[in-house]
Write a structure and sequence with these properties.
This protein is mostly beta strands and 332 residues long. The protein has a single domain, classed as Porin, CATH 2.40.160.40. It is built from one helix and 16 strands. The strands form two sheets. Strands 1-2-3-5-6-7-8-10-11-14-15-16 form a twelve-stranded antiparallel barrel. The chain has a three-stranded antiparallel beta sheet with strand order 9-12-13, with no helix packed on it. Strand 3 and strand 4 form a beta hairpin. The longest helix has 9 residues. The protein is elongated, with a radius of gyration of 20 Å. The chain starts with 45 loop residues before the first strand and ends with a strand.
Amino acid sequence: MYRFIIVPLICITMPALADHPTVAFGNEASGPINTIAATTMPAGMWSAGIRTEVIENDEFSDQKLIDYADQGLEGVHSVDRIISTSLSVAYGINDDLTLSARLPYIERKNIREGEIEDGDAEAHGHGDSSGLGDLLLFGQYRISEQDDTEISLLLGLKAPTGETNDKDDGGQRFETEFQPGTGSWDFLIGGAVSHSYKKFSYHANVLFNKTTEGSQSTEIGDILSYNLAITYKLNGEDHSNHNHEHHSDSSETNITWDAVIELNGETRRKNKISGTSEEHSGGTAILLSPGLRVSSGNFSGFLSVGLPIIENMNGKQTDLDTRIVAGLSISL
């Protein structure tokens, strides 16, 4: 079976892990599921994939939202579930440079807020938000490869192609933080390192997303993501005994299994509207994410379940319950 074909395709959306899809995740083809590995694709190879991320929140009850509104806490809201399904494609320009693109479709279920109406505190349901998210263009350049250790530079650009005019059940335009797109140009820079040893491989990455002001004079807070992963090959050959070539032998049709365990973290700054920070936005969340990947020939499928171990959010925000990530890919 050919060497890891790592496709660092990243989904960029908006802040507060409990209210938005995560900032970055790994590839569809092989290796860790949410962590970006340092390995690039072989020259001339294509990869395409689909990934779905489902975030279940411990939502606020209507009474809780009413209580917050009664206390004068403006901007407290609740989103039951976020579903982000993205299509991605990547190409190996050469053995050290991979370019990729990702386009997500984002849904938010049962958006509610506590508000003051005619002097009385009420919980208002706004319905669901959905639409195409922002296009991400991403590049990974491997700067070092020796002794089964690889180091790569990560650079990305998020274009404001997503929906920013979605309306709620009352016909009012959703605030930007609930829109599928942000309306802003964002810039990403970071690095990744990977090391293989027999049936184990170790991966780490850090990525900084610098946001700008977008739709409705809203600037979604800057985001720093940081991830660690260990993968273990349950069957098949060792990670360290590969080369960059794709071999056309019968062993590539065998099914191989990889166990994955990850720590996935994000720290986000507060949102700003017309230059004023929103109290109930931003913060830090770290998830423990066990997963499993199965591969056969050019095809790969994966599943990861993330559970929060640290949540330190600003103001009043819903807690994250679980995050499920699943997907499929093909490499040619």
